[in-house]
Every structure is written in structure tokens, then in C-alpha cells.
Design brief:
The chain has 456 residues and is mainly alpha-helical. It has helices at residues 3-24, 30-33, 42-70, 72-91, 96-108, 112-122, 128-179, 197-204, 207-237, 245-269, 273-290, 298-326, 332-382, 405-413, 441-445, and strands at 390-396, 418-424, 429-435. A hairpin with a 4-residue loop joins strand 2 (418-424) and strand 3 (429-435). It is globular and about 75 Å long.
Length: 456
């Protein structure tokens, strides 16, 4: 990456991280601290935890599309202001109903797709994968950090302190966008990072993608429901004071992260992704079921949560990679938009439905709901065809060549390892799905219609 790209990627990744940190910090403490709010019931507490997911899911793709018309930075400013306003509203009240409104307002700042589109504007195609990986790492780190910082801030300043800290993070993100993120001179509608209306229908009828969308829905349904029951178990059944929850989460997250790395390597390098995926889902279901039997043993609870987050981290890292592999050529951005929408709907229903069940059936009712959802996901995954091992490859085309588009398309399809080709004529760009094991870039470079030095 050149200096401008490095600056852009670091700045946008930090904005993403600050926003996600703010959303996640409340999760490990809300069920403990929210019981004192006016009008609070387990059902409403669950709805409040998941409420941000509803507005996120509804506005994720529209925000990205609107940024084409009114500008990326303007939509990011709007989103961060909404996020800050929701945080201040939630922090200034002791009513569960107002906090729900605040959480919905937080989620209404659905700028994830805009940030990815801006990443496309500010980076070259050949650097795009590195840029997206950096953003992905920042999201993972923000989640892990939130599980440690949330309980610490909650013990010091309560719910209001967490919400006000979230508002400050949003304002800091505004400053970063205004002062550090460059303003792109033009929009580059990259199919890898940007949703397109014409591709939505194609993505929504793809059975492979729908299975993965259901997977991320089930994963975040389970995660949100977990934080309705586990903090209470730690405090009331296992005797760990809320002020000490941070070290429990810290030790679990660090060890489980390193434990899942060998399985990522096994899935990707040895092409064993389906067995790894199904094994992780089964482990997640077993760990969730195991939470019903940890009463009285903090060590046993730690072990069960270690396996839970080992499986969770493995799945969270693997699913975006599988979406990228399975998305049709020139549909990756749209596929990721639908995938993110499914993720946030899962978070919303995990909170709302889990909270209702907590009220009528207690902790074990929520845990068995989670297990049931994971078993359904396991069946869906087992019936899924073996994932392909193709990756996206972008080819810049010469503007002045004698070949027709049909001839270019056929010439690209004839290359070994090329599974799919979509040509975007106005951008002089071809989007390929290729199997790197058989694809030869030297053969590609010898084609007369390929522009040299701009392909990735």
C-alpha cells in the first residue's frame, strides 16, 4: 500500500472499531445493571440488548446505496451523529423504554456498508483484500476488548457511563473522518465492496449463500442470547462479582483465539472447510448445552465458555471467507450486504426472543432455545455442498482493443482455473472467480485485452 492507502485504511478501520466497541460494550453487563431501570422486565431487557440489530438490518444496504447519491462522508457523518444521539439518549435516562429507543437510534447509524464503499474509493483493486482484512481484524479486536472494558466501565460508572463513553467514541470517530480520512475525488463502485440493486435478486436465490446467511443469523442469535443468561450465571450461581467479570472474559477470549487458529489453517490450506465448519457448529451447540450443567463450578464454566468462544471465533472468521468464495462474480459486495443484514437480524431476534423466553421459561429455557437453533444450523451445514475454493480476481481491460465483449468473456473463461466471469463494460473491468490452485496469472497477462500491472 502507498502512504495514502495506509492512512485511509487505518483511519476507516479505527472508525469501524470505535463504533463496534460502543455497540458491544453494553452486552456483558446490561442484564445485570438493567434490572434496576424503570419498567424493566427480562423481555424488555432482551429487546433493548438486541434493538440496535433491527435498525442496523433495515438500513445497512440503503445507507450504502444512498452514499452514491449524497456522498460517502455525508452519510458517515449522519450515521455517527445518529449513533452518538442514541448513546446520549440511553445514557440520560433510567427508563427501559427510552433506552430501547436509544438503542434503535444507535443502530440507525448503519454506516458499515458506507465505510466499505469508501474503502473501495480510497484503495486500488490490488490492495483491496489487505484493506478489508484490516477492517475485519479491527472488528474482531473491538469485540474482544468490549467484553473486558464493558464490565470495568459498568462497575465504575454504571450503564450511563458506558453509554456516554460510547457517545464520546462516536464523536472521536467523527473527528477521524473529518481530519484523517481523505475525501475521494470520485466513487469507484467496486463489486467487491459495494451493494448493487441489480445483484440483490441473484444473491437472494443462491442456495449456497442463503445457507451461509442463515449461519451468521444463528451465530449472532446465539451470541446475543448468551449475554442474557451468562452474566447472571456468573454472578448469582457461580459467585463471581460483576466487578471481576472482566478478567474472566479476558482470559477466555485470549486463549480461545489462539486455540482456533490451527483449525482456520486446516480449513483453508488443506481444503477441509466443510468438516471444520460443521465441527465448530457441533462444538458450539455442545458448549451451549454444557452451560446448563456448570452450576457451582467456576472452573467448569470457564472451560465451557472457552470451547464456546473457540467455536464462535472460528465461525466468525470463516463465514465471511466462505461468502467471498461462494458469491457469484461481481456480486461480492451485494452478498456481503445481505450477509450483514442477516447478522444484525440474528442479534435482534436473539435479544428479543431470548428476553421473552427468559421471562417465561428462565435461564435454561434460553439455553435450550440456543441449542435448538444451533442444531438446525448444523443440519443446514451438513446438507450444504462442499464449499468452492475460488477467490475473486479483478482484471483491468484495455480500452482500445479489437476483441468484442463476447470474445473477451470467452478468452477469460478458457483460462485454467476460471469458474465465472462478469464484465462491467463502463468500468473496463472483468470480475473473475478463480481457483488459485489451477489459475496462472502469466497466461492471463498474455491476453491482448488485459491491461498490465493493474490486476489482482
Amino acid at each position: 500500500m502507498n502512504a495514502l492507502e495506509k492512512r485511509s485504511v487505518v483511519a476507516l478501520a479505527s472508525v469501524y472499531a470505535m463504533r463496534m466497541l460502543g455497540l458491544f460494550m453494553i452486552m456483558p453487563v446490561f442484564v445485570l445493571l438493567g434490572s434496576d431501570l424503570q419498567g424493566a422486565t427480562p423481555a424488555l431487557i432482551g429487546f433493548a440488548i438486541g434493538a440496535y440489530g433491527l435498525s442496523q438490518a433495515l438500513l445497512q444496504i440503503p445507507f450504502g446505496l444512498m452514499s452514491d447519491r449524497v456522498g460517502r462522508k455525508r452519510m458517515i457523518y449522519i450515521g455517527l451523529v445518529l449513533f452518538a444521539a442514541g448513546s446520549v439518549l440511553a445514557g440520560a435516562t433510567d427508563s427501559i423504554y427510552v433506552i430501547i429507543i436509544g438503542r434503535l437510534l444507535q443502530g440507525a447509524g448503519a454506516i458499515a456498508s458506507v465505510l466499505m464503499a469508501m474503502l473501495s474509493d480510497l484503495t486500488r483493486e490490488e490492495q483491496r483484500t489487505k484493506a478489508m482484512a484490516t477492517v475485519g481484524i479491527s472488528i474482531g479486536l473491538s469485540f474482544s476488548v468490549s467484553l473486558v472494558i464493558g464490565p470495568l466501565l459498568g462497575s465504575l460508572w454504571g450503564l450511563s457511563g458506558i453509554f456516554y463513553t460510547t457517545a464520546v467514541l462516536a464523536l472521536l470517530a467523527l473527528v477521524v473522518v473529518a481530519k484523517v480520512v481523505p475525501t475521494p475525488h470520485q466513487h469507484k463502485l467496486s463489486a467487491d465492496t459495494h451493494p448493487a440493486r441489480e445483484m440483490v435478486g441473484k444473491v437472494l436465490v443462491d442456495g449456497r449463500l442463503l445457507r451461509l446467511d442463515f449461519g451468521i443469523f444463528a451465530l449472532h442469535f446465539t451470541l446475543t442470547a448468551l449475554f442474557l443468561v451468562f452474566p447472571t450465571m456468573l454472578q448469582d450461581q457461580l459467585g463471581l462479582a460483576a466487578t471481576s467479570h472482566w478478567w474472566f472474559y479476558l482470559s477466555v477470549m485470549i486463549t480461545s483465539f489462539f486455540a482456533m487458529v490451527p483449525f482456520i489453517i486446516l480449513g483453508e490450506k488443506k481444503r477441509k472447510m466443510k468438516p471444520v465448519l460443521c465441527g465448530a457448529i457441533a462444538l458450539l451447540a455442545l458448549a451451549t448445552a454444557g452451560l446448563t450443567g456448570v452450576t457451582g463450578s467456576l472452573g467448569l464454566a470457564w472451560g465451557v465458555l472457552f470451547f464456546f468462544f473457540m467455536a464462535f471465533n472460528l465461525l466468525e472468521a470463516s463465514l465471511p471467507s466462505l461468502i467471498s468464495k461462494e458469491a457469484p462474480a461481481a456480486s461480492k459486495g451485494t452478498a456481503m450486504g445481505v450477509y450483514s443484514t442477516s447478522q444484525f437480524f440474528g442479534a435482534f431476534l436473539g435479544g428479543a426472543l431470548g428476553g421473552y423466553l427468559l421471562q417465561v421459561a428462565g435461564l435454561e429455557g434460553v439455553l435450550w432455545l440456543m441449542v435448538g437453533g444451533l442444531v438446525i444450523w448444523l443440519v443446514v451445514a451438513l446438507t450444504m455442498p462442499t464449499p468452492s475454493y475460488t477467490t475473486s480476481f479483478v482484471v483491468q481491460l484495455q480500452h482500445a482493443v479489437a476483441a468484442t465483449l463476447d470474445e473477451i468473456d470467452q478468452g477469460l473463461r478458457n483460462l485454467p482455473g476460471v469458474a465465472d466471469v462478469v464484465i462491467v463494460e463502463e468500468a473496463a473491468t472483468a470480475y473473475l472467480k478463480v481457483d488459485r490452485q489451477y489459475f496462472n496469472e502469466d497466461q492471463l497477462a498474455r491476453l491482448e485485452f488485459v491491461r498490465q500491472g493493474d490486476n489482482t
